[in-house]
Structures are given as structure tokens and as C-alpha cells.
Sequence to fold (226 residues):
Amino acid sequence: MIYRVGDVLRISCPFTPTVVTGVDEAYVSVRWPWWEIDPDAEGVRWNGEVALCRADPDELYITDPASPLLAPGDTCRVGIPARIIHLIEVHEYEPPQETGWLPRPSLSLLVLRAGEAPDAAAEFQGTSIEPDGGVPFTLELVFRPYAFLEVGDDVADAAGRAWRFDGPWTWAAYDGAGGVPVWPLALLIGGADPAAVAAATATGSHEAEVTRWRRAAGLQDDARSR
Fold:
């Protein structure tokens, strides 16, 4: 799958046996069952463990049994129960990123949990996952805003303005003015199917598409997307 900002996904990961290596008030550390130490990493040393935050609602992974019942040396399972997330950033790395473990990831997705809105004022927000980084995630696409368009497509809107689609929240008007495109839309050039664009935008509006995304992402209707 090619991922895009705005994608609403269902993530899960099979629970896998491991060993607890440390427990404190904030974290439970476990031997990570899916990665290997990278012997060729320069300046990065990983000890084979991952610390999972016990109280952070953004923490995707949980242990079974739950962390309050665990002590160093205990065996447990670690995984991700199925949950909804939405994508706010996509980063590709060529060559793959040197992290200290193997496999080295070439793709990183910054995601928010369902119900958490992007905050442009936040210094840091979200959790990074690496779909090709060795953890056996299952990622299912639940909703993609403007799924009928391809990034880089040019469209004309009902008001006679031309736009470039750089993503659902990053429209660029060729007249230099602001705003959002007025539906229906007509494909001018790009990889999308012109008939699909016309059919998908024959009714509705940009605002209605945002509302559909917000509902899929578990956000309140009266909050603003950014």
C-alpha cells in the first residue's frame, strides 16, 4: 500500500512471547521479539530492549498480562490489539534509516490514535511506526479522504479555479488565492480517472469530505482539522 497523509487505518500486531527486562513507575521494558541488533550500525547501539509507556494513551503496544502484574524476568506477550489510527506524516528513507536494529526501515509513518486531532502548535505529536521495519503489523485502510485523486493531480472546480492536489489538507490554487475547491471537480491532468473524479464530486463538498474523515478518525464534529 502507498500511504498518504489523512489515511485512517486499522492497526494490529499478533501477540508474541517475550521476557520482561525492567519495570518502573513509567515503563515496562521487554526483549523486543521482532528485531535483531545491527552489528554494522555506526554511532548507534541498541541493547535489544524496548520500553513501553504504561500510562501514555498513544502507546500502541500492550503486554499480556498487563504491566502492573509484571516483574523483571517474567514471561509475557507483547502486541497491538486492533485499533484505529490516522496518518499525519509520511517519511521515506533512501538508503534505509540506520537505527541500531535490523531490518533497517525505509518508511516511517507518524500516526495519531483515534480521537486525537492534529495540533499544528504541538512541538511533537504522534507515534512513529515502520511498516517495513520487521514488526508484523497488519494495516488496513479504513478511509482515505479524496481517494479518487492522486497526489499531483490538477483539477478545475465549479467556481472556475484550477487547483493542484498535494493531499487532502494541502490544496494549492493556481490563482494564488486561498480557500478550498468548490465541488464538483473536473480532472485537468494527472493519474486519476476523470470519470471517477466527476462521479465522486457530483454531490457533496470539500467540507463534507472533511466531515467523513473526522468521523472515521473518531474526532468530534465541532473540532477543526489542520
In short: Residues 154-216 form one domain.
